[in-house]
Amino acid sequence: MSSEGATNDHDVDAVIVGAGFAGIYALYRLRAMSLRVQGLEAAEDVGGTWYWNRYPGARCDVESMSYSYSFSPELEREWMWTERYASQPEILRYLQHVVDRFALRSLIRFRTRLTQAHWDAASGQWQLRTDTGESLTARFLVMATGCLSEPRLPAIPGIERFAGRIYQTSRWPREEVDFTGQRVAVIGTGSSGIQSIPVIARQTAHLTVFQRTPNFSVPAHNAPLDPRARQSLMENYPPFRRSLRESFTSLMPDSEQPSALALTAEERERRYRAAWDEGGIRLLFCISDAIISKPANDTLASFVHERIRETVKDPEIAVRLMPRDYPLGTKRLCVDTDYYATFNRSNVTLVDLRATPIVSASAQGLATSAAEFPLDSIVFATGFDAMTGALLALDIRGLGGRRLADAWHDGPRTYLGVATSGFPNLFMITGPGSPSVLSNMVISIEQHVDFIADLIAKMHERGASTAEVQSPAEQGWVEHVAEVAETTLFPQANSWYMGANVPGKPRVFLPYVGGVGAFRKQCHDIAAAGYAGFDLRR
Ligand code: NA7
After folding, report:
1. Separation between Cα atoms, residue 300 and residue 323, nearest integer Å
2. Helix 441-462 vs helix 237-245: angle between axes, to the nearest 10 degrees?
3. How many domains are contained in the chain?
4. What is the pLDDT of residues 233-275, one digit of tens each?
5. What percent of the chain has pLDDT over 70?
6. Mean per-residue pLDDT for 129-139?
7. Distances (CA, A) of 157 to 211, 363, 441
8. Residue 363 in 3-state DSSP?
9. Which of 151, 326, 372, 499 has the greatest number of C-beta atoms within 10 Å?
């Protein structure tokens, strides 16, 4: 299927940007179609999210038996996850194993960041440039750049004067960081803060946690996997995987649940307690209406408030840790080990930035409107420009030289989160408008990559050289994504799902919340209808 007229190594069929879960599988799948593929990766090794986010306590919040590739039964048989929730080092080892096992490493150019991608209509190719000064051309450009890969750092006046060390959870150094004896600050209490704070607290002389918005968190109850249970699941991988793919969340198989409002207070308490004791995000799905009914959601939120109250000994600190201004689950529900209990330690202080914001930094530390905090190290766990950040950080120009940043000025516009009109042969893996961050990323990645690969195969069959989304199909999808979001409580939170963490970013609900199984079926039907909504042109 290689295109004719390839002149050198810089002219390939497909460039795949990013070598995390998405890029690795895209390389595997497109190479198997005999396309000449080139991977580009800014880091010096594979892993994507799991390369960069190597902060203390980093762990997946999806259970390890669900969070792995399903494309190879041999791979499924030979890889043994060791814990209920895999740690970052274990997931990174897994991805390194996959690239080596399938001989993909030589297809990737490391330490190379794509900076520019311009569509050349005359040749029907993408003209690409990298930060190493290289130029490449490719018929297809596949963005496997991740949903949470463009970090955000707050602008703190004077931060450049700080004489201690500054760390970012999303850019953690490869060498070991030892906080022993130090006064450390963690800014941010999203998932990265909540996972790292208990671990950092155990090392430091003193830890100050700077919290802007408290988060709901549920215990992971992480533990080594029972070898027999693991074996039995491994023997039943195909039906298990199928049940996840077809489910609403892809995080666990679907099961019928009652409305919270149809239960008595005692029944709710029993149900919530069982989910809490089991651990993980099950709590959000142990009733049918947590994300669509505020009164139902309130019952869950009160339950978690009570758990915080009973865990945290100082009642004032407990209240500060209780989220009050958004429904549970409308900011990503965190999964932790000892998070709330960490605030019982005598070496941990919680600062409420809503009451006393950070005003400046100096050589010695940070100052809020109320006090000064002398510090040796500052850790930023302040999140990402989610879902669109990595794409819009690049100079991408489509038909007529139109910039993606202009086309998406009022929010991302995609068809199925996989392509956008005016940008032929540009594909996104788990882009905005797809279930992505609300799903099991590995399942969504495999589905999107398969969709793209099958579309390219269909183009080949028809002798088509370009695929472009038709505007009406895109408009319909954009409206559908927004309409479904409006039936939920998600728009009520100032979350990164809504773009609310980045000043000036359009307030648009970014992922598709219609369900993973339903999304999959829509993609399947569109493919079966000859890729309805795409123009496949010669
Ligand atoms: P998140 O979930 O976006 O969390 C970022 C945290 O940083 C959150 O508590 C923010 O508060 C806080 N933040 C952001 N900017 C500031 C400033 N300027 N000052 C103080 N605090 C700030 O990112 P994570 O890395 O923790 O997690 C991302 C995802 O990765 C997670 O959901 C999992 O899917 C894995 P805010 O809530 O905006 O008030």
Report:
1. 12
2. 80
3. 2
4. 999 999 999 999 999 999 999 999 999 999 999 999 999 999 9
5. 98
6. 97
7. 18, 12, 37
8. coil
9. 499
Q: Are 40 and 7 in contact (CB under 8 A)?
A: no
Site to substitute for ligand 1 among 382, 430, 444, most atoms within 8 A of C-beta: 382
Distance 188 CA to ligand 1 centre (A): 5
Is residue 269 within 8 Å of 303, Cβ to Cβ? Answer: yes
Confidence class of residue 4 from pLDDT cuts 50, 70 and 90? very low
Containing structural domain, residue 251: 159-380
Q: Mark whether 390 and 376 lie in a shared domain.
A: no
Query: Would you say residue 6 lies in a domain?
Result: no
d(CA 479, CA 483) in angstroms, rounded, equals: 6
The rounded Cα 12 to chain-centroid distance in angstroms is: 29
Q: Which of 380, 401, 435 is the last residue before a domain boundary? A: 380
Q: Which of 212, 330, 497 to mutate to test the pocket of ligand 1 (most atoms within 8 A of CB)?
A: 212
Rounded to the nearest angstrom, the distance between the alpha carbon of 382 and the centre of ligand 1 is 4
Mean of the pLDDT values across residues 191-213?
98
Question: Is residue 3 included in any domain, yes or no?
Answer: no
pLDDT digits (tens, 9 = 90+) for 68-96: 999 999 999 999 999 999 999 999 999 99
Q: What is the pLDDT of residue 416?
A: 98
**Dihedral sign from CA coordinates of 286, 287, 288, 294:** negative
225 and 132 belong to one structural domain = no
pLDDT in tens, 90-102: 999 999 999 999 9
How far apart (Å, rounded) are the C-alpha atoms in residues 340 and 181? 22
Is there a contact between 146 and 43 (Cβ–Cβ < 8 Å)? no
* Same domain (yes/no): 212, 234: yes
Domain boundary, last residue among 354, 380, 406: 380
Tell me the backbone φ, ψ of residue 457, rounded to 5 degrees.
Answer: -65, -40
Q: What is the atom index within ligand 1 of the atom nearest the CA of 154?
A: 18
Label the pairing between strands 358-361 and 365-368: antiparallel
Contact by Cβ (8 Å): 396, 117: yes
The protein residue whose alpha carbon is closest to atom 4 in ligand 1 is 190
Overall pTM > 0.90: yes
